[in-house]
Amino acid sequence: IMAVRWAEKLKMLVTTLEHRQCIALVGPTLSGKSTMLECAMRTRVTLGGNKKVVYRMNPKALSPEQLFGMLDPATSDWVEGGFSATWRKACRLALYQDSWLVLDGPVEPEWIETLNTALDDNKVLTLPNG
């Protein structure tokens, strides 16, 4: 029964990925999120998708400024963060590979609110970059 339910969830995830550019897999520790994601990636490649490249980062290890970027108060220049730099790289390579940006850690309001812009139907990550 559990294998059938898991396979149904995998099918739903793969179908969702056909229509969405960004998803959130949330659940308790050791609930199978990483395994589900790996299976979904392999399924997409098997079904004729581009090669996959995974960029993993722990959002708790970085401040919101280090993660998404900030306006330098001394120079008024935008300093790109790790996530936004990785997102830019993934967009440049989108024709050749499927890039998966995985924020592996507990959901925190400090960073999930910023990602809400990527999760909506506009398909744009909006950052306050002055």
Structure overview:
- This protein has helices spanning about 1-20, 35-45, 65-70, 80-90, 110-120, and strands at about 50-55, 70, 80, 95-105.
- Helices cover about 45% and strands about 15% of the residues.
- The protein is α+β, with helices and mostly antiparallel strands and about 130 residues long.
- Helix 1 (about 1-20) packs across helix 2.
- The protein has five helices and four strands; from the N terminus they run ααβαββαβα.
- A hairpin with a 6-residue loop joins strand 2 and strand 3 (about 80).
- The strands form two sheets. Strands 1-4 form a two-stranded parallel ribbon. A two-stranded antiparallel sheet has the order 2-3.
Kindly report the average pLDDT value.
Answer: 82
Order of helices and strands: HHEHEEHEH
Which geometry do the CA atoms define? globular
Number of helical segments with 4 or more residues: 5
Q: Give a count of the beta strands, DSSP E runs of length 2 or more.
A: 4
- Share of residues in strands: 15-25%
Contiguous low-pLDDT stretches (5 residues minimum) are none
Order of strands, widest sheet: 1-4
**Helicity level:** 40-55%
Distance between the termini: 52 Å
Summarize this structure as a short list of keywords or feature phrases.
single chain, 130 residues, alpha+beta, two-stranded parallel ribbon, two-stranded antiparallel ribbon
Helix/strand layout:
Elements: H1 2-19, H2 33-46, E1 51-57, H3 64-68, E2 69-71, E3 78-80, H4 82-92, E4 97-103, H5 109-119
Helix pairs in contact: 1-2
In short:
This protein has 130 residues and is α+β, with helices and mostly antiparallel strands.
